[in-house]
Input
Amino acid sequence: MKKIKLAGAIVETVLSIPIVGWFGYIYSFGIFGIAEVSLGIIGLSKHKKKTGSILQIIAGCLGWLPIIGLTLHILSAVFLYKEVGK
Output
């Protein structure tokens, strides 16, 4: 089950890079956002630690805002990597 959190952490890491994240949202027509929120919901239902998954869902909803999205993606990636490591 750690594979789901790791996948979410990798998606968050990619989306936290400003140009890559912006092009990802624009040219995938929101597929990254839907995948991000879906991974967060699956992570909520499968794992005990929920902080990273909650941040991932929030980042998926607010990720299109330039500075807020960058900060949320970085924070959720850090929390998800931390949860995968334990």
In short: The mean pLDDT is 79. The chain has one domain: 2-85. The helical segments are 2-15, 18-27, 31-46, 51-62, 66-85. Residues 2-85 form one domain.
